[in-house]
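Render this sequence as a predicted structure.
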Amino acid sequence: MKRLLFSGLGLVLIAVTCLAFNVLAALLLRDVRLDLTEQQLNTLSPGTLQILTSVQTPITLYLYFSDNQARELPPLRNYAKRIEALLHSYAREAPERLSVQVIDPAPFSADEAKAARFGLQGVPLQQGGSPLYLGLAATNTLGESQVIALFSPSEERLLEYDISRLINALDQPKRPVIGVLSGLPVAGDSENPPWGLFEETARQFTVRYLAQAPTKIPADLTVLMLVHPKQLPDASLYAIDQFVLGGGKLLVFVDPLSEADPSPQKASGLPRLFTAWGLRMLPGKVVADGRYAMIAPGHKQRPQRQMTWLNLPPEALNHNEISTIDLHRMTLATAGVLQPVKDATTAFVPLIESSEAAVLFDAESFGLLGDLGDLLHSLKPEGERQVLAARLHGPAESAFPEGLQGTENGLRHASNINVIVVADTDLLSDHLWLEEQQRPGLLRSWADNDAFVINTLDYLAGSDALISLRSRGRFSRPFSLVDELQRQAQVRFQATYQQLQQNLIATERTLATLRDNPDPHEADLPDEQRQALDQYASQQRQLRQQLRTLQYQLNHDVDALGQTLKLVNIAPIPVLLGVTLLLVLVVRRLRHGKGH
């Protein structure tokens, strides 16, 4: 048997066995996947699986990628491969309802013309060159289509959400209906146009404005949008409560001090409903933030920092949420604070937050003081980030457990609600995100307030399965330990480095002055000047050496970590093989000894 194993025929049999095993594994285990990534990047979310299960008509997905033109763009090709792999994961879960075709549209070909007809966006790599495509078109058997015009690597975290949303929209093409109940004149009137944000909303959704104090919310609404609700009667509150418990989606803007409200009563809220759903807005409290203060015209039109007008950077926004992902700036004014209620059954997810430098002050004092600067600077920061907008989801009880008279048989509990609350109404007004250009009527957005609202409505307008989708993690993982080592080294050596750099600059200036000979024909320098030159030249060499040494120390910990990782990655296999070989030799020796 041993002779056969080590003979030529034996080696051939081993090779054939390995080949047969690989072929059988490819055929029988084709759909078996093991996702070992930390954030399950290669696993479809339960929401996506639910959407695929509910697809009614067969759908074909056409991935257009100009592979030949992207030969010199490895990162883009890798991104396209991840998209293709994800699409095939969709098809594996619904093979009878979903199919995938990958097309490389050559320049001036029929495929490129078809991509253009779909509305996919081609990006020229060079001026006058052929466009590069990386987009998705989807069609069903009814002749309807949906597209993702261009996949952007910067939006990779939205990849699964975008594809699932496309499939869901193609399977359910009805346009979402947004019901708006507002205590502010957002719809405009005979003298004033609608607010810009609501004009934008009407271009993407069917918007229906509801009468004040409704006693019933229309059942065909996809999302109810409440703006500055003030002193609503119990009948209206009950109607909203039942709408939410019945599966309706709610986006609500409340405010402790709405600067857009011309009436004396500038506060709004839904305290009874909020408490039942698991949150509260601190009554009468406004956020001021010195770190995120906006520069705006102040006294005598001189620019000054308005601490109650917040210019929120990306770090103030939750980039794990669909509503706020990839937004760059939002602007709020005299916003309130949201907090979860103790022992709430719902999950409270912050969307927008202040910095740790935020302070709270009474909204009543805002209009009584001519200058809030002294008051705000005298207040001590809370030392924690205040939540300005949040998403609620999970089981909730009715705010009217006994119902209202004549409606005792209403809903008292929901296994899951979907509510997004924003503690500011001013962000909706034009002056906080729009500015007029030199040409009359030409407007430009300078903040992402409109994108936040559209994203949120689009998110809530999806099915429960679509809402449950998480944003995928990043495929490119930062070296957080390396970054931390570099940061610590910078802190330790920054002062020394700056001092050495300053000394070197001063020394080089002195050398330049000494070498500036006023008489170019004078070849010999005075002894004193020559000695000074030698001294400063030596000092220059010493300083440069010290800077090189310091730079080495800055990178020492990182280099040491790199050497350790190399050792861990390279050494185990040779060591394991060596130990195995030694064990085999020892066992053979022992057996040989027993044989004798």
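Summary. The mean pLDDT is 82. DSSP finds 15 helices and 22 strands in the chain.
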